[in-house]
Amino acid sequence: MDKRQKILIVDDSKLNRDILKEILGETYNYLEAENGNQAIQMIGENIEIDLMLLDINMPQMNGFEVLKIMKRSQCIAETPVNIPIVAMTANAFKEDEEMALSVGMNGHIAKPIDVDKVEQVLCSILR
């Protein structure tokens, strides 16, 4: 049985998802969703996820809306969903990171994606 931790990549850009899959390589298992609706559906299906890499700027449902739905479900679910969430965004200012953390994100990764930063954030949260 595969014991690698599972990461849900949520990004509307296939290129970004592909880059992240390359970074995660054989160290982690991963699933991918191309929008917030798919991410919420996957979580609702009780798929075991150890961490979510969540794009903030997506059409239809942005990352902050996904977080809000997840927090609401934590309050009403019999078995709360408590998945660490790392915001991913092109908004790379310190204020953007502070805002993401203040609303309940567990980390922040600026785009374009930096391999070392991704590894640093994953290690700090998952290990």
UniProtKB/TrEMBL annotation:
The answer to whether UniProt assigns keyword Phosphoprotein to this entry is yes
Which residue numbers delimit the Response regulatory domain? 6-126
Recite the UniProt keywords alphabetically. Phosphoprotein
Keyword Manganese annotated = no
The protein's role, per its UniProt record: May play the central regulatory role in sporulation. It may be an element of the effector pathway responsible for the activation of sporulation genes in response to nutritional stress. Spo0A may act in concert with spo0H (a sigma factor) to control the expression of some genes that are critical to the sporulation process.
Q: Name one Pfam family in it.
A: Response_reg
| The species this protein was found in | Ventrimonas faecis
Spell out the InterPro entries in the cross-references: 2C_system_His_kinase (IPR050956), CheY-like_superfamily (IPR011006), Sig_transdc_resp-reg_receiver (IPR001789)
Instruction: Report which superkingdom the organism of origin falls in.
Output: Bacteria
Q: Which residues carry this modification: 4-aspartylphosphate?
A: 55
* Protein name, as recorded: Stage 0 sporulation protein A homolog
